[in-house]
Amino acid sequence: MTKKVAVLGSTGSIGNNALNVISNLAQRLDLWGISANTNWQALADQARRFHPRFVSIGDGSCRERLARALPEMASRIVPAADFVEMAAQEADIVLVAIVGAAGLPPALAAAKAGRRLALANKESLVMAGGLVMEAARKSGAEVIPVDSEHSALFQAIQVGRPRDVKRIIITGSGGPFLGRDAGDFGRITVEEALSHPIWSMGRKITIDSATMVNKAFEIIEAHWLFGQPADNISVLIHPESIVHSLVEFSDSSVVAQMSLPDMRLPIQYALTYPDRLPSSVKPLDLADLPGLTFRKPDLDRFPCLKVGYDVARLGGTCGAVFNGANEVAVAAFLDGRLGFSGIYGVISRVLDRHTNAPVDTVEAVFDADRWARAEAEKCLQST
Fold first, then answer.
1. End-to-end Cα separation, the chain, in angstroms
2. C-alpha distances out from residue 228 to 142, 220, 234, 338, 358, Å
3. For residues 348-371, b (16+ Cβ closer than 10 Å) or e, as one string?
């Protein structure tokens, strides 16, 4: 049976790959709707190519431009809040590929509505993992991770039983500065930080990869997705990005998921699970590989990674504060207002000033987020 798919954040890297997957599986997947924040030109192009039922643009000033570009679809261009609610009620699968805190409301709406939530937004679980997973449990929603690492863990865990999982191991390429002298981090430029050696991603997540905040977020995500305490989660640097993550079971067996680095594979799996269908991803030929290497991360050189373990242990509003402070610090770095090493400095100072509290409501999450952003701006002004 054909499944209706809503892609939120369709003009980004994940969104574009998702549309590619959907078009290749038109007999199984129907594009119900697409949304973007400000890139109305790309959204209009996608609407002309893929003919979704609904289209939405988050920035109100761009909506009129989008309507002029798509006169034949003017009645089907809906406000962002309405699109989120409609997607949660009408689509079978909601793919949340929005970057940042803005991804939490649609993720929570899909979870509450009992839909399949294909989650590519790290911040939803970092900020409010308990709320999202509890909402999914109550409604019967499926939360299927799209991140390559968590998709790999999701696949590997199915080999055994959840209670037999001893440890989960998240791999990471190490980003562009794996071999760079730590004393030189203060001179890293924006252009250098945006040059990822493996993955093509948006600007914000590429910086997160360079600081290893993305791995810190993935530790927190794994804690919520798989119910594992922080002490059962490890990180390994794997520059080749072939082994996407591993699961160690109680009998000491280790199961890995491997493939060439191509986001279409985890996206397709999230959309078609439990079925495995032919894809356009190039097969992996192990004989062609020069070798696979692994090493433990250096927490002194990448201190943001340690923050991930601390936040996973503490829970509460720490996740929202971590994310909010990081978003402000990354934006400041991209704008030239903060040095690369200063990103961790802002995060650590904001967390030091924070009084942790339970996360009982989404309002508590966004209150903590607003506080963290204001504190991060204070830090920037005093830098």
1. 57
2. 18, 10, 11, 35, 19
3. bbbbeebeeeebeebebbbebbeb
> Which of 145, 176, 201 is at the close of a domain?
145
Q: What pLDDT score was predicted for residue 200?
A: 67
pLDDT in tens, 56-109: 999 988 999 999 999 999 899 999 999 999 999 999 999 999 988 899 999 999
Q: Which two tokens stand for residue 136?
A: 């999914």
Same domain, 160 and 105: no
CB 77, CB 70: distance < 8 Å: yes
> Above pLDDT 90, what percent of the chain?
88
Asked if 269 and 290 touch (Cβ cutoff 8 Å), the reply is: no
Tokens found for residue 196: 């990822």
| The domain boundary residue, chosen from 145, 180, 208 | 145
Per-residue model confidence (pLDDT) at position 86: 97
* Residue 75, token pair as written in the block: 């009645």
Q: Which domain holds residue 70?
A: 3-145
CATH number for the domain spanning 348: value is: 1.10.1740.10
Residues 309 and 187 in one domain: yes
Global confidence as pTM: 0.93
Q: Which residues pair with 30 in a beta bridge?
A: 4
Q: Contact at 8 Å (CB) between 341 and 311?
A: no
Report the Cα 216 to chain-centroid distance in Å: 12
Total structural domains in the chain?
A: 3
For the residues 267-271, what does the mean pLDDT come to?
98
Rounded Cα distance between 128 and 111, Å, is 12
Q: In the prediction, which pLDDT does 202 show? A: 79
Torsion, Cα 134 139 140 141, to 10 degrees, reads: -80
Mapped onto helix, strand or coil, the DSSP state of residue 30 is strand
Beta strands in the chain (DSSP E): 3-8, 29-36, 54-57, 77-78, 93-96, 116-119, 142-145, 165-172, 233-237, 243-249, 254-258
Share of the chain above pLDDT 70, in %: 99
- 233 vs 311: CA distance, rounded Å: 13
Shared domain check, 128 and 34: yes
| Secondary-structure breakdown of the chain: helix, strand, coil percentages, each rounded to the nearest 5 | 55, 15, 30
